Every structure is written in C-alpha cells, then in structure tokens.
Amino acid sequence: MTVVSGRSNGESASDGANGAGASGGSANFDALATPAQFRMVLISALAAGVGLLAGVVAFLLYRLIGLFTNLFFFHRVSFDFSSARLNHLGLWVIVIPALGGIVIGFMAKFGSSKIKGHGIPEAMEAVLTNRSRIQPRVAILKPISAAIAIGTGGPFGAEGPIIQTGGALGSLVGQIVHTTAAERKVLLACGAAAGMSATFNTPIAGVILAIELLLFEFKSRSFIPLVIASTLATAVHLQLLGSGPMFQVAAMDFSIPRALPFYLLLGGLCGLAAVAFSKALYWTEDQFEKLPVSDLWWPAIGALGLGVIGYFVPRVLGVGYDTISDILNARLALDLLLVVMLAKAVALVISLGSGTSGGLLAPMFMSSAALGGAVAMLLNRIFPGAHLSPGAFALVAMGAVFGAASRATFTFIIFAFEITRDYNSVLPLMLVSVIADGIAMLLMPHTSIMTEKLARRGLRIHHDYEADILQQVRVEETMDRHAQTVASTMSVAELAERIGRREPEVSRHQALLVVDDEGQLEAIITRGDILRALDRAPSGTASVRESGSASSRLVVTYPDETLSEASDKMLRHDVGRLPVVERANPKKIVGYLGRRNIMAARLRRMEEEQVRERGWMPGGEVRSPSRPKAAVPTPSVPAQNGTGEGARRSTS
After folding, report:
1. Where in the chain are the domains?
2. Would you say 288 and 119 are in contact if contact means Cβ atoms under 8 Å apart?
3. Positions of E strands within 464-510
4. What are the backbone angles phi and psi of residue 446, rounded to the nearest 5°?
5. pTM of the predicted model, to two decimals?
6. Straight-line distance from the first to the last Cα atom of the chain, in angstroms, rounded to the nearest whole number
7. Overall average pLDDT of the 69-89 stretch
8. pLDDT band at 648 (very low <50, low <70, confident <90, very high)
9. Which fold has domain 470-648?
C-alpha cells in the first residue's frame, strides 16, 4: 500500500471534516510529503565554523570596547581594556555617555532597530517569529553599537551583544546554505553559545544558555553542534585572551553546612531582587514611551542620566569587570557595596530602558554581587560568630539573581561554578538559586526579564521543558479497535441515507473504511467525499469505493507507531483520520485513528498532572477528573477504543 504526496483519504483542505486547512496552505503540503531529514554531520561542521568565527568576533568586540574607552575617557589610541572609572574628566564625564547615546539613536533609527536592548530577547524573537532568520546588518551594527555604548561609559557588558551577534552569524550561515528552519535554529543557537563561551571562558554555561533560552529543545541533534561550537569558541578565547577565568577570585570559605540558614535568607533576597530588576527595567521603558520626543533621542536622555550617576559613582561606568573582581575578593567596604549596588542598578535601568544597545549580564552581576557581599557583612555584624565570607555570598548572589530573572537558573549555577572553578561553591549556588527562582516564579509566573518584551508583543514563551506525550503513546493504545466499515459495493445514496438516519454503524466517525467481501481494506470515504459524489451525480448510484480514496492513495498507520508519527502523517498529507492496519498485511484492518484518539494522549497527561490519587494515609479529599461530555477516556480504561458513551456522542 503506497503513500502519495498531496491530499489523500478523500479529503481536501477546504473539507470541514478534514480539519487541516489551517496548516499553512497547499504549497506546504507538497513539501511536507517528502520531509527533509536533519543533517547532523553537516550542521556540526557548520557549527565548528560558526564557533571559530564567534570566538574571533568576541575578541574583536573586546578590543573595540577598549579602543572606544581609551579614546573617549583617556584621549589615547589603545586597544587594551581600561576601566572608565579611572578617568580624570571631571564634569565632562556627564556629557560623554550622552554623545554615545546620540550615535546609538541614529544607528537604531536609520540602521536597524534590532540593535536596541541587550540582545537575547531579540535572538529569541528571531527564533519564534522569523524562522531563525536575522538580518545581515544586525551582525555588523550590533557589536559596533554595543562597543560605542560601552566605550562611552554605558554600564553594560559585552556578552549580550556577542550572544546576539554570534546568533546572527549562525543565522546567516544557515541562510547561505539550504537549510530547514530547525537546522537554522540550531546554527543560531550555536553562534549564541559560542559568543557566551568566548566572552567568559565558560563553555558549559554557554551550551546550557542556548538550550534554556533559544533552542526550546534538548536533543542530541542540537546538543552535539552546540558543544562543538562552544568548545572551539572557548579555544579561540584561550588562544587570544589567555587561559585564566574572567574574574580572578581568591579561595573562598562557603561555610557549608554551618551557613545554610543564612543562604536560605540570601535566596529569598535574590528572588526579590530579580523581580525588582525586571519590573524596574520595563517600568522605565514605559516611562520613555510617554516622553514627548522622538525615540531617536531616548538613548541620549538615558545616557545623560547615566553620566550624572557616573560623576558621583565612577564605578558604574563601563563594563565594570574590575569592580566585580573587587567585590568577589571582598575588597570593598560595606558602605561602598551598598552605593555600588543601588547606583549600578539605577544606571542600568535608566540606560537600557532608554532603548540603547548593551548587555544585561555584567551590570546585573555587579549589582547582585554587591547585594550578596553586603548581606554577608550585615549578617556578620548581627551574628559576630557567623564568620560569613562576603566573597562567597557575592558569588552565589551573582548567579542566583540573574538566573531567577532570566529563568535560566541551571545556566547560571554552572556559570558561577565555571568562573571560580571551585566545586565547593556548587551546594550554596544550587540552594540559593532555586529559592530565588521559586520566588521569581511566584511573583512573575508568566514572564521573565528576557521574555517580558516579547510578551508585550503578543508572544507567549513556554519556560518549561517536557517530553512530548505523543512520542510516548503508541497508536494501539488509543485507536478505536472497532472501526466502522461499509461494503465496497454499497452506493453513495444508500450510505448518505443511513448517515441521515444517524444509524450508529455509520455515524460515529467522519470517515468510514471501505472493505471488500473478505473484509480487506479497499478505500476510505469521508462525508466530504459523499457530498462531492452527490454533486457530481445527484442520483448517488456510484459505489463508495469509486467515490472514496482507493487503496493506491491511502495513508495508513500501524499499531506500533507512536501518535507523533501518526499525527505527522496527518499533517504531511492533509488528512484528519487514518486506517490502522497490520504491517505484515496492509489490507487487514485493526483499528481507526482520528484526531479525538490522538487527543486521548493529552487527556492522559492532564490526569497525571491534575488528578490527586488516594495514598496510604487516611483522610483527605480525593477528586475524580472532571470531563466534558464528549471527552475521550484515558487509554488505561476499557472505553479507550471509542465504544463508550462519550465516543458515541462525538465524531472524529
């Protein structure tokens, strides 16, 4: 029995019984009928090139930031990375960020608006709405705009722009080569992971970041290219920037298990801080939207506010990696930690909320590290015998706050571990991060600092990962074992009359299987086929075999196939139901699979999630599932095959 492209099983996209008309039009069905397989070897080879390229771009951006910082703050030509806080410009330090803001405003207005923001949401949007296509100009303008913003004092990091730029490079490679959208998505994620890895020398965190925020899947076909790209990008970092971690951190005492109660408190504070960051950033964006001036000038206005803050607190200017190192090594006093924590947070939300270009990670790392260090110092004053390490608390808070704010907790547990390479940090990192994440989930259940912008544009981002239930259930578990059949010699008029009388033998499903005298499958006929046959010949003398889809054009499924495979066949061939036949004898009918039978698997998952079963303990209330009248029983009960009352009340 063969399977052909296009529409089969007697249905068309316009047939109401088919239910596939919204799947993208007839042009897509011919392509789906001969699906392209994911080419892991080719994508892995391309990922290697993307990883090397992203590593080089990260190095160039790092040097470009150094050049602009030296030009604007020290009036010298040098590519060495310098801290803007060491400048001697006096009041001129207020003006310089505004000059950079003007340049960014013009670049966003006349170049590409995609350079606005910190980069990761824009990469997510490309995956979700544009089939992982990013404009070539973004790969050029984003790193340049970020270098200008940071080089003129912007309180940002280079990692966000590098992640977006690396993603853009991967997307461009996927657009040059003939690829599917899924392959292009993997290449985009490879570029993003490579950018993260090359910036911080954290290859594992780079891979996990791409999985949690960009891929929306965890499969070997994507994991292998990700690891290749991340590894090679890190190798480039080691060659060009050295083998040391981004932050040189002295040995820390994490005081486990003695300090566990204090880490619980820190977890709660980090969760609240993560929510406060998110709310403050998007509240600031809303205020800029209300300004009676063109958005061309918003980055300059935000940068002017930054300049005022930077005049009084120079440590908020620029990337601030040196300040983060000072905090992690407990070199700053409590008063200065509190000032840095508040000033950096305010400078960040004002600058980034204005729509300029820059990364979110480094400034949030600085502010949250200051929070952790300050908490440890305050607790040491309240409990003199606690002997808590401010550096340890700073490191843990640094990972926990951003992990909770971005819903990428696992990524930043690994990230904080990789930058210290101290395994003793893992336990407090895990504990504090999950507590912070839990609080953030309670207070912001549907969005994060990464997805709030997308949610405002109408995109709903699912943060959780779970196995597809359709890939876990076989056809034989939900199919109707009592398929309704009609003789191939029956006329269309007789069948239409019996359906009109609602005879149970022919009215339970939208389609009927046509069999010969021996009960072997001959064809399938739908109600749409009947209507078309009556339009052609109102007398209805044609047989149902002639009016339905003959066996040479039938699409069938087998009992041992998964519902995912069966539903793929339905989508690929634009049909709404499938005969279930034996593999050894494709004409022997063993069941019938309609859309309702596929949804039975989803009902199983709903009951697993929502039905509380009685335990060994006495007492308590146990509720049975509440089902609509036409609901499909779960595959575990006898009525699963569509012969129960619920099945008789609906058709499929």
Report:
1. 40-241, 260-456, 470-648
2. no
3. 485-487
4. -110, -15
5. 0.81
6. 24
7. 87
8. very low
9. CBS-domain (3.10.580)
Instruction: Give the separation between CA 493 and CA 539, rounded to whole angstroms.
Output: 7
What are the φ/ψ torsions at residue 434 (nearest 5 degrees)?
-75, -35
| Among 242, 212, 196, residue whose Cα is nearest residue 57 | 196
Rounded-to-integer distance, Cα 367 and Cα 351, Å: 15
Mean pLDDT of the chain: 84
Query: What is the tens place of the pLDDT at every residue in 283-325?
Result: 999 999 899 999 899 999 999 999 999 999 999 998 888 899 9
Do residues 498 and 484 touch, judged by C-beta distance below 8 A?
no
For residue 389, which amino acid is it?
A: S
Q: Which DSSP category does 84 fall into?
A: G
Mean pLDDT of 217-240: 92
Distance in angstroms (rounded) separating the CA atoms of residues 580 and 641: 13
Retrieve residue 521's tokens: 């499958």
Amino acid at 29: F
Tell me the chain's radius of gyration from C-alpha atoms.
31
- Torsion 360-361-362-365 (CA) sign: positive
Which tens digit of pLDDT belongs to each residue from 457-495? 777 777 677 778 888 899 999 999 988 888 888 988 888
Domains 40-241 and 470-648 share a fold: no
Query: Quick one: 260-456 is in which CATH superfamily?
Result: Clc chloride channel (1.10.3080.10)
CB 162 within 8 A of CB 311: no
